[in-house]
Write a structure and sequence with these properties.
The chain contains 5 helices and 5 strands; from the N terminus they run ββααβααββα. The chain has about 110 residues and is α+β, with helices and mostly antiparallel strands. The chain has a domain of about 70 residues: Orthogonal Bundle (Arc Repressor Mutant, subunit A), CATH 1.10.10. This is Metalloregulator ArsR/SmtB family transcription factor.
């Protein structure tokens, strides 16, 4: 956050361009049903690409593509065990957003 403006005698802090970009990309990540499904699964347990593919009935190429997108936003991280990559959540804040959105969608 960078510049401040006097807005009706109250201070208003504007968002800088980098913050705006990261926030918009985070919401973009959460706007895709496949990414939501992957994040929801990873919020519950660490998984390999194959485990994600099987659990969500998706193609391996689809899962890999979406994980790359999520990794670039630092929403997921991975660890290597031999030749297998295991993915897990990298940011609890985003999972909190996702859980709140799921809660909002599932109650009357």
């Amino acid at each position: 956050m960078d510049s401040k403006t006097d807005f009706n005698n109250e201070e208003y802090v504007q968002l800088d361009e980098e913050t705006l970009f990261i926030v918009s990309q985070t919401f973009k990540a959460l706007s895709d049903p496949t990414r939501i499904r992957i994040l929801h699964l990873l919020s519950q347990k660490e998984c390999s690409v194959n485990e994600i593919t099987e659990a969500l009935s998706l193609l391996q190429s689809t899962v890999s593509h979406q994980l790359r997108f999520l990794k670039n936003l630092r929403l997921v991280k991975f660890r290597r065990s031999g030749t297998t990559l295991f993915y897990s959540m990298d940011d609890g804040h985003v999972i909190d957003l996702l859980k709140q959105a799921i809660h909002h969608a599932s109650h009357d």
